[in-house]
User: Which sequence fits this backbone?
């Protein structure tokens, strides 16, 4: 009896052990799935106070600062721009360090405060490797970003053992992050001091801006000129991005390093604007700028006066492809403009530093008009917009789905284990009357299968971490150099510090205001991240959760080896033509946006040609059915039927999200918007990337985008829709996206909407159109101004309009729409059908 009880007890113990092992095996599978867990988000904002008022409240440590190590090291560094820095923008830190003592091997570190979270102060460490023998000196060229108002940067030397052997401070004055910084570059900056009166900032959302004097004074508050020379000219894109515009005169660019010139080119391609003064010194100023090699100096001429400036004024005669007149009079050009990528180069045909134009109010007025005409957004100041929206963050942090094969294999192994240790083992031992052997076999099978599961988990591609990068490549017609914005998200299996490294130099931008969480009630200083300043990349995120997500963004340029060419045009109610891929990129999928309608094609490899033959009516119907090319139910059904894989469905979602976030809202009524979107999974950043020194799973998606607008005046036949301009004294919000336009009024009111008709065309038909969608209502009442009777006629969406009655002498159509308070309403589009008057020209 006792023997049987002992045997029963053994069986229960062994069964419990087997059950525990099975649970451990199952739980070991759960860990990888936490890869999809996102850190809790809080909206911690940096408080910025203009003029540094209240700075002492944010920076109360200045009385406790301690310096040491000066007997061994001479550290002569300068930071910022003339002793100032712009909050949230990158500043240079340059100078020389000399060692008078024993040999030093370690790092020079810059401690820059990023923001306050609860009671803690967060800071970043920017560091550079430093080896200094006794008596040796080394030049330091670093960059740092201060995310909050602080009076100083801390400079430290830390040896290989982690000991801080030197500490001192660089004192700075903070400037508002909305500051419009104007870089002035010349060999004779004294002659350009008058540019301190160049006021470009424009406050656009202040209620008092209607008071002209107030607005002028407020605008001036945000202008900040900085004078640069050969030694202080930025060599990194992060620092150059802090400038809103560069004004250059009497300067030889060939004196800059190759890195500085490449950085300047990249900055302009990415949307920067540079003004070049020429005149008699045109050859000198253009020298060294390879990207302006097409600009030819054909000589100089003189004029006796320009507006109210009298004297002999030398004007350079400039020519080149793409060069157009920006400011001129009576056939004489004063300012020309050249588009380069997303940016502009403005060429002043006269010298900005030589008499008689130097120092003149006329010169300042010309520069102000020209700059605001080509780059007004660079000078807009939004007083109440403190946020920074990163289009790529939310796409990059949406990681690809798991590959299911290895996971299914693990589940299969568990199923086999359950069958073996369950009924199979029981019946076999019972048949052989050796059930007492179970106490040996059950643990044995448990160990074997647990080892198998562990081996499978370790061999999984997800065992260490993941890198997911998303890029948008902005291509320009006729150029093989393109601007790239990249967002990169990281996940690592272990808790603690996560270090991303690459043998490629990547400019790192970390926006700590989004998706960041850490709860604290202490008054500590916390290191948020460390960034290496050098020719390779290393950024370390502190205190990361297991499988937590870290993120940074970067900008770069890429040589595509050619461009994408389009011959697409409208004929017989169809879009016809070819898309020719002259680049070195293989696109696995291509989408064309044709006047707001989308159509997707299969792959377009490098050197291949895509034939386009699409009926406009079919395109409109197709997009009406697919709601802009995106249908969740259809895609889910295709996955369920096995027609497409989960990964392919995920890629289609990501492609749509990218198109939606980078959709160009068309406002030019003389053009038909045509946009090429090409997709590639080849990473733009091709360096060897690692997390904590380990190779991890890497996935990427790049969208290549290029516009090919069609001139209506040159199309035989066209059908397009136009968006109108709203005029109302009532406060409202207007939303424009790929699905149409809507209006959200804060009060019940009438809204007047004007449509500018294109020039150089013959219009055959007019119609007001609007698409119903969820949570958006049609107008309560819609009327149109009759130019003959001067009265408002009632009209319905979809109703054909009489041309003679509703197009006025200004070539405009005007409607009135009555809207209900706080009810989002469809804003009608004006559909027109006609043909160009200059076909073949």
Assistant:
């Amino acid at each position: 009896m006792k023997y049987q009880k002992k045997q029963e007890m053994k069986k229960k113990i062994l069964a419990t052990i087997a059950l525990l092992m099975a649970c451990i095996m199952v739980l070991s599978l759960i860990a990888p799935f936490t890869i999809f867990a996102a850190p809790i988000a809080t909206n911690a904002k940096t408080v910025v106070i203009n003029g540094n008022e209240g700075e002492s409240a944010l920076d109360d440590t200045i009385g406790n600062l301690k310096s040491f190590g000066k007997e061994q090291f001479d550290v002569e560094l300068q930071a910022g721009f003339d002793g100032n820095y712009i909050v949230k923008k990158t500043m240079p830190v340059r100078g020389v360090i000399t060692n008078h003592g024993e040999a030093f091997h370690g790092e020079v570190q810059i401690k820059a405060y990023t923001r306050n979270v609860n009671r803690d102060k967060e800071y970043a460490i920017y560091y550079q490797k430093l080896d200094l023998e006794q008596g040796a000196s080394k030049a330091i060229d670093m960059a740092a970003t201060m995310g909050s108002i602080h009076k100083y940067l801390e400079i430290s030397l830390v040896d290989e053992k982690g000991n801080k052997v030197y500490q001192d401070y660089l004192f700075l004055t903070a400037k508002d992050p909305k500051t419009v910084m104007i870089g002035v570059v010349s060999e004779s900056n004294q002659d350009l001091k008058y540019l301190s009166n160049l006021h470009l900032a424009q406050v656009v959302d202040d209620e008092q801006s209607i008071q002209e004097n107030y607005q002028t004074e407020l605008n001036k508050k945000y202008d900040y000129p900085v004078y640069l020379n050969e030694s202080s000219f930025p060599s990194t894109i992060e620092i150059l991005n802090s400038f809103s515009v560069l004004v250059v005169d009497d300067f030889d660019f060939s004196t800059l390093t190759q890195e500085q010139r490449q950085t300047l080119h990249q900055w302009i391609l990415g949307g920067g604007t540079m003004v070049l003064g020429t005149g008699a010194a045109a050859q000198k100023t253009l020298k060294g700028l390879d990207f302006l090699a097409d600009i030819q100096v054909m000589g100089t001429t003189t004029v006796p006066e320009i507006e109210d400036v009298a004297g002999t004024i030398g004007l350079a005669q400039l020519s080149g492809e793409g060069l157009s007149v920006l400011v001129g009079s009576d056939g004489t050009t004063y300012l020309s403009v050249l588009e380069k990528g997303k940016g502009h180069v403005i060429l002043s045909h006269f010298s900005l530093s030589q008499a008689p134009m130097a120092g003149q109010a006329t010169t300042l007025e010309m520069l102000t008009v020209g700059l605001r005409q080509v780059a007004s957004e660079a000078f807009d100041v939004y007083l109440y917009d403190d946020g920074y929206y990163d289009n790529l963050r939310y796409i990059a942090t949406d990681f690809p789905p798991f590959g299911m094969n290895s996971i299914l294999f693990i589940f299969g192994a568990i199923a086999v284990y359950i069958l073996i240790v369950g009924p199979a083992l029981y019946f076999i031992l019972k048949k052989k009357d050796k059930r007492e052997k179970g106490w040996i076999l059950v643990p044995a099978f448990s160990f074997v299968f647990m080892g198998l599961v562990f081996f499978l988990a370790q061999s999984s591609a997800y065992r260490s971490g993941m890198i997911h990068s998303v890029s948008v490549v902005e291509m320009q017609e006729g150029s093989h150099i393109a601007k790239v914005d990249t967002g990169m998200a990281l996940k690592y299996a272990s808790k603690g510090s996560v270090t991303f490294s690459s043998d490629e130099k990547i400019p790192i931008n970390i926006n700590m205001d989004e998706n960041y969480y850490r709860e604290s009630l202490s008054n500590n200083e916390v290191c948020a991240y460390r960034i290496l300043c050098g020719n390779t990349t290393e950024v370390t995120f502190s205190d990361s959760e297991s499988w937590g997500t870290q993120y940074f963004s970067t900008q770069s340029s890429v040589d595509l080896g050619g461009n994408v060419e389009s011959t697409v045009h409208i004929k017989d109610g169809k879009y016809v033509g070819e898309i020719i891929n002259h680049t070195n990129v293989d696109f696995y999928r291509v989408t064309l946006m044709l006047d707001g309608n989308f159509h997707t094609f299969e792959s377009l490899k490098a050197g291949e040609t895509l034939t386009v033959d699409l009926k406009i009516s079919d395109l409109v119907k197709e997009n009406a059915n697919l709601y802009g090319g995106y249908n969740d139910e259809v895609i889910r059904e295709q996955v369920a039927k096995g027609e497409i894989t989960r990964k392919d469905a995920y890629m289609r979602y990501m492609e749509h999200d990218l198109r939606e976030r980078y959709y160009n809202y068309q406002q030019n009524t003389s053009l038909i918007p045509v946009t090429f979107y090409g997709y590639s999974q080849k990473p733009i950043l091709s360096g060897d990337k690692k997390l904590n020194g380990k190779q991890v799973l890497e996935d990427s998606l790049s969208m290549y985008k290029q516009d090919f607008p069609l001139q209506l005046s040159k199309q035989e036949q066209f059908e397009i829709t136009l968006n109108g301009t709203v005029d109302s004294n009532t406060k409202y919000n207007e939303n424009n996206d790929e699905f149409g336009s809507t209006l959200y009024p804060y009060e019940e009111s009438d809204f007047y909407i004007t449509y500018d008709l294109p020039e150089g065309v013959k219009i055959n038909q007019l119609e007001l159109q609007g698409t119903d969608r969820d949570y958006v209502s049609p107008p309560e009442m819609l009327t149109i101004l009759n130019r003959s009777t001067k009265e408002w006629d009632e009209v319905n969406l979809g109703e054909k309009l009489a041309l003679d009655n509703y197009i006025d002498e200004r070539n405009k159509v005007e409607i009135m729409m009555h809207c209900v308070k706080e009810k989002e309403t469809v804003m009608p589009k004006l559909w027109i059908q006609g043909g160009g008057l200059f076909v073949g020209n």
Summary: The chain has 14 helices and 49 strands. The mean pLDDT is 83.
